[in-house]
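User: Before I run my own analysis I want an independent prediction to cross-check against. Here's the chain; please return only the structure tokens and, at the end, one sentence I can use as a sanity check.
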Amino acid sequence: MKRNWFILMISVLMVLVLAACGNKEDANSSSKEKKNEDVTLKFYTWINEENGNWKKSVEAFEKEHPGIKVDVNVLVENMNSADYYKKLDLIAASGDTMDVIMLSNSRFLSQRASVGMIEPLNKYMDDEKLKIEEEYDMSASPASAEGEYYGLPSKFNKYLVMLNKDHLDKAGLEVPTDWTWDEYKEYAKKLTTKDHFGSYLHTWPHQHHTMKLLSQTEGTQLLKEDGSSNMDDSMVKASLKLRYELEKEDKTSVPYTDIISQKLDYRQQFFSQQASMVPITSYMVTEWGGFTPEFPITWAPWPKNSESDSLNAFTTADIMSISKKSEHKDAAYEFIRWMTTEGMLVQNKSIPAWKQIDLNDVLKNLAANTTNPDAVDIEALTYVLGNTISSKQFLPASYLTEAYNAFNVEAELYLLGEQDLETTAKKAKQSVQGVIDANKK
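Assistant: Structure tokens:
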């Protein structure tokens, strides 16, 4: 896998170098866009029309920006970002035209920025005199260590817990507004019946294998800001232990063996009422995956590690970036600035990272756009989003995904009961360090 990525990225670099060495006169003339000539931007995404509302959004943009057209290229219809990245990187390696690129989080942004695929935005921001931290919540799209910004955040997601309100009521439980992982475990016990589990945790190593790590104000990932290992953080092992206790000892969360063998999905488990709680992100306010809930959905903050901790939440964002090879960078910047601000309200599909919004109004409009608006507990969701602190992040090392994959190999052996926690922690630390060493050469 790593070798394939390396070969592909070498191909991308070769294309970039060849493009840079092209005829200077042609490059200069192509960069000067004629004011009276339409520019067509090629925009790449994995989000399909149903979930992206691109037709309406692009029409609104083009009406406000005569002279700029946008050609939306949805590379996959199944909304699978992993499949999208395979196709995107092949297009980049082939040298085909790319102007605007959408990325699903800072890990994938970092991978592509590190090989020169993404244009830094600082020049355009300076020309506009943009105070970016005042304009956007940048916690999920931070600058590099050198202070370079490589993208603007559009859809903004905060980690939280999604709950079945009917199940809470039947168990006599209140909607949590401030709680710990110990209390989550108690809720899971009380919510578990012969018909359903109290909890569901998916197969994601970056989320459900590291839940307690994600409750911290900083140091929430397996690598530190300088690319070194964070595996000595006690919350790495504590997170695995928490999941094991829920699934293997308490038997209150869907067993990992079932999730793997039956290829279970978190949406199916929650909306079919097979599980009462799912730690997830706020995109679930609208992204129901074809399901229509027949029960009210409520929301709670991401649990704390101890009572004295603040209510912290890891954040992610869909990020809009400009291709380094684009011949229309100014127009591309206009598009991503509009799409990550006013365009998010036109799109009306997700919560924006843009700060100049009325959150309550946005949530009401999003709920109204679902197949069952009454199912969404707007009051609880507004509380959670407004009362949790975004954890401190940084643009991660380009090999962070490799580190999580290596960690996952050992974590799964533990969750499946094939090795003990101490062995898992030791071997996972060694595996992650192996990834770091291989990438530092």
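Sanity check: Residues 158-314+392-438 form a domain with the D-Maltodextrin-Binding Protein; domain 2 fold (CATH 3.40.190.10).
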